[in-house]
Design goal:
There is one protein chain. By secondary structure, the chain is mostly helical. It has helices at 2-5, 15-31, 37-49, 51-61, 65-80.
Length: 81
């Protein structure tokens, strides 16, 4: 998530931001479970809907990161789903 924090000043459609979402999706698929677009979208929503996730992400990577990641994932799914 710290990689996303470094990109918060970029637009959601910026290629660096979108590449980071792709990297996150690949990481989840390789290390945990197959992460298709539906699952990725759900994770993005959970990052802001569940206060535990929001608090952890923001504590780890900086205030506002959870919201940024959620929005970046939504943009990625919209463009690639």
């Amino acid at each position: 998530m710290k990689a996303f924090a470094k990109l918060k000043e970029h637009s959601l459609s910026d290629s660096k931001v979108q590449k980071q979402v792709e990297t996150l999706q690949s990481y989840i698929s390789e290390h945990f479970y197959p992460c298709d677009m539906e699952i990725l979208s759900g994770l993005g929503q959970m990052y802001i809907a569940d206060n535990r996730f929001t608090a952890f992400i923001d504590k780890t990577a900086g205030q506002g990161t959870a919201s940024f990641v959620s929005s970046a994932i939504a943009e990625y799914v919209k463009n690639n789903g």
